[in-house]
Amino acid sequence: MIVVNLDVLLAKRKMSLTELSDQVGLTIANLSILKNGKAKAIRFSTLIKICEALNCQPGDILEYRVD
């Protein structure tokens, strides 16, 4: 199971989804789908933009859990 920790990183960075949307160039709706774990896939280019905006590594955003 892949867990998306986007909400945790946004809280740590004191950044809103709207601010991230503006920096990354994605709609709030698409970021919300990713944040809520409803996305089926993510492009590497999108992941790179999010990492740049949040100053983090992909592993900070995506986590693999065995449940």
Can you walk me through this structure?
Residues 6-61 form the HTH cro/C1-type domain. This protein is mainly alpha-helical and 67 residues long. It has one domain (2-64): lambda repressor-like DNA-binding domains (434 Repressor (Amino-terminal Domain), Orthogonal Bundle), CATH 1.10.260. Helix content is 58%, strand content 9%. The protein has a two-stranded antiparallel sheet with strand order 1-2. The longest helix is centred in the last third of the chain and has 11 residues, at 44-54. It starts with a strand and ends with a strand.
In short:
With 67 residues, this protein is mainly alpha-helical. 58% of the residues lie in helices and 9% in strands.
Show the helix and strand layout.
Layout lengths: L1 E3 L1 H8 L3 H8 L3 H8 L8 H11 L3 H4 E3 L3
Antiparallel strand pairs: 1-2
Helical stretch count?
A: 5
Q: In which order are the strands of the major sheet placed? A: 1-2
- How many structural domains can be distinguished in the coordinates? 1
Question: How far from one another are the termini?
Answer: 7 Å
Tell me the Rg in angstroms: 11 Å
Strands, count: 2
| CATH H-level superfamily | lambda repressor-like DNA-binding domains
Q: Hey, roughly how much beta strand do the residues contain?
A: 5-15%
Question: What name is given to the CATH topology?
Answer: 434 Repressor (Amino-terminal Domain)
Class from helix and strand fractions: mainly alpha
